[in-house]
Design brief:
The protein is of the alpha+beta class. It is built from 5 helices and 16 strands. The strands form 3 sheets. Strands 1, 2, 3, 4, 5, 6 and 7 form a 7-stranded mixed sheet that branches. Strands 11, 12, 13, 14, 15 and 16 form a 6-stranded mixed sheet that branches.
């Protein structure tokens, strides 16, 4: 018998009482010694500066709501923790729940007003959409498709670093899809723009939600075909070939970038294939 998913998304009515809740502000999520889920009725009694409330799903069968705050404030016995820290530690399924909550928070904040006329929008009951009655427009949570690719050449892999990375860390190449192009076209264009390299044998490996703030990462593996590495000015601080037995500091274990690298290392060594984060819980 298949075990039920611990976390599932759903559009729940905020007018219904009960359930648990997570709290989001610009400083991250509210956290105490028991975790990020709090009794909703308890939170309601704290007089928090709630900007909006959303029913977002079920965790271990319990209804979960999201409280988006205007300002962080303080709650006795609690601290604020950023989403990236949840990605690095604790249960991955909790990070998935909070990643979804963060994206709903971004959507709710960015679509409080209509982009066409500037008037306030309202939530549509039973649907994850904000609505402008004047222009008859619906605004749904944004998902931005992007590609990420590991390029290999035998026992070497091509890694690069952006000025925005943690010092010393190198990763795979990535970029956002442009209107009108396929994911494969995006891979080839981004790689040419960032390092001036041509590819062959492009293979899709998997995807990962990347809620920073609302990306869908489409992961690929490709083999080097030709070209000398020329880093793109202002985008790539350094890019080079690394031998698989002499790698620099790599991205976080739970990222799809790390999964692409570990998959190739396993392939070259004959070790078991790693599992893409988020694909094995249940």
């Amino acid at each position: 018998m298949t075990r039920p998913e611990r976390w599932t998304t759903a559009v729940l009515d905020p007018q219904v009482s009960g359930g648990m809740a997570v709290v989001y502000s610009q400083q991250g999520f509210l956290l105490d010694s028991q975790g990020v889920l709090f009794p909703r009725h308890w939170l309601k009694g704290l007089d928090l500066p709630v900007q909006s409330e959303h029913g977002i799903g079920h965790f271990d069968g319990e209804p979960v709501y999201l409280l988006v705050l205007d300002s962080p404030g303080s709650v006795e016995g609690c601290v604020w923790q950023g989403l990236r820290q949840f990605m690095l530690e604790g249960e991955f399924v909790v990070f998935e729940m909070l990643g979804y909550a963060a994206q709903i928070s971004t959507w709710a904040r960015e679509h409080r007003f209509c982009g066409a006329c500037g008037r306030p929008t309202v939530q549509i009951a039973g649907e994850r959409a904000m609505y402008c009655e004047v222009d008859n427009l619906r605004f749904y949570p944004r998902i931005s498709p992007s590609m990420i690719v590991l390029i290999t050449r035998g026992d070497e892999i091509l890694l690069a670093r952006s000025p925005r990375f943690v010092p010393g860390v190198y990763s795979t190449l990535a970029g956002f899809a442009e209107p009108g192009e396929s994911a494969e076209d995006c891979v080839r264009r981004e790689v040419m723009e960032e390092v001036q390299v041509r590819l062959r044998n492009l293979k899709y490996m998997g995807s990962q939600c990347w809620p920073f703030p609302h990306s869908m990462m489409l992961g690929f593996h490709a083999e080097y075909e030709s070209g000398e590495i020329v880093p793109q000015a202002d985008e790539i601080e350094d890019a080079r070939w690394f031998r698989i037995d002499d790698l620099p500091p790599l991205p976080a274990n739970r990222s799809i970038a790390r999964y692409l690298i570990e998959s190739y290392l396993a392939q070259r060594s004959g070790a078991p294939e790693p599992v893409l984060p988020g694909q094995a819980h249940g």
